[in-house]
């Protein structure tokens, strides 16, 4: 039987709260440190794939998340100029068991926070972590500890991670809006429209927010980094005209967007730590690996990292446990990083020939067996085992 550890989790995001819940349920003493004065989510919507939902079920949060989120059965995209369908991935046959769970970050945050605190984790707010020295944390509230292990779940802005990620050329602006009555867009699909790869608009049904009954959606619009830097200076009406010119069906989703502040810029980067741990410190989620959200795997990777860490600590301690965590996740992370790097330029880039290759070669090929099944498994997150040597029930 492995000993009970004193564990500090830096960051109350998806990976941090999932790790706190799993580790506290395993009997460890867990304290979560977060920089906000009160725990709060950041961002709009995301999709929890089947492998991520299995982690939520493991910590007892799956049913609550599914009650709030929207079931996504298909992802589809159309090139506006040609009218060609250039993205079409179904999770399962009609009535099948697998689906993506689209959910607002506030809803996911709520169910994860409830799971972590119910498991016995303590949450300390107003305590941004800015360093680790031996067994102690340096926080905005002073030195804390000692701890047997520090889990860095502070995301892409981590001050603890040595990861030097490569900025991606394109990002996006995101917003959360009411789901409009009478829209022809299906409430069970991620729907996107493209102009070559230079422009991309999307609508993602999200279910509902905690404490509310009305349905909401995430809307997004792709932009190069230089345009993202100037987003707040732009004319919102000109932008809305550009969006609806590309995709008229998106107009009802834009009625509540009255200023650039209603849409949040998101910048992306790509990189992976070769060794996501050092003695007494382990990195998970975006602190360990970052990629474009094109495959919708970011939150799932963080959930899987949390499960791998908790699993590794069941059978070992110290460096041996952290090395086991890294081995469990190595090949799954590498595969999805590589696939993200390959797919992203086809949908977000200034390339002229990649969209042609996508539309005229790759899309027709994707309809030929066994590729539809392989694409489904790629999106679902289980093209290869998510935890090497382990089974996720």
Fraction of residues in H or I helices: 25-40%
Secondary structure tally: strands: 22
Reading side by side through the largest sheet, how are the strands ordered?
6-5-15-16-17-14-18
Bulk shape: globular
Q: Roughly what fraction of the amino acids lie in strands?
A: 25-35%
**Overall SS class:** alpha+beta
Kindly report how far apart the N and C termini lie: 22 Å
Low-pLDDT segments: none
DSSP summary: helix tally? 10
Radius of gyration: 21 Å
Largest beta-sheet details: 7 strands, mixed
Mean pLDDT: 94
What does this structure look like?
This protein is 33% helix and 27% strand. With 393 residues, it is of the alpha+beta class. Helix 1 (14-25) runs parallel beside helix 4.
Quick take:
This protein is α+β, with helices and mostly antiparallel strands. It has helices spanning 14-25, 50-58, 62-68, 105-118, 225-229, 236-246, 298-315, 318-347, 353-366, 371-380; strands at residues 6-10, 29-33, 45-48, 70-72, 74-79, 85-90, 100-104, 122-124, 129-133, 136-139, 142-144, 149-152, 166-167, 170-178, 189-195, 199-208, 215-224, 264-266, 269-272, 277-278, 281-283, 289-290.
